[in-house]
Amino acid sequence: MTIKQLLIEAGAIQVGVKETDWKKVITLAAQPLVDNGYIHASYYQAVISNTLAHGAYYVFDEGIAIPHARPECGVIKNCFSMVLLEEPIAFRDSEKADIVILFGATDSNRHIEDGIRAIVDLLDNKERLDKLRAAKIWQEVVEIL
């Protein structure tokens, strides 16, 4: 299943989010996944704990954050969640990001190979990033993806 299909299935696309607290953004990104049985609440708590302990290693120069944790931290099914922020924010001590894609994978290999690679392939396109940043409703995001 593609990122687009997983986002739609989970109802996990949030657009125009106004939030300045990175912990709340991670919680917001995780909520539809918790509500729909993709992850346990322990998963996003692990993402927050890892960020506090190791920094926001998942923020990239293009303003993209890909927060995640290990599969054993509470992943039930492979999943993605997207939050598009109105204004970029720093995740702890990182560069600022306004495109946030939280993902969970059921095993470590898929975590790296499928999850991160799929996100990089999807977002390795400046025109697509610009369109995502301009989107006003989740249906536009689906069309862009």
From TrEMBL:
It holds the Pfam family PTS_EIIA_2. Coiled coil: none annotated. The keyword Ribonucleoprotein does not apply. GO terms for cellular component: cytoplasm. Residues 6-145 form the PTS EIIA type-2 domain. The keyword Acetylation does not apply. It comes from the Bacteria. GO terms for biological process: phosphoenolpyruvate-dependent sugar phosphotransferase system. GO terms for molecular function: kinase activity. This is Ascorbate-specific PTS system EIIA component. It comes from Serratia plymuthica. The lineage of its organism: Bacteria, Pseudomonadati, Pseudomonadota, Gammaproteobacteria, Enterobacterales. The gene is ulaC.
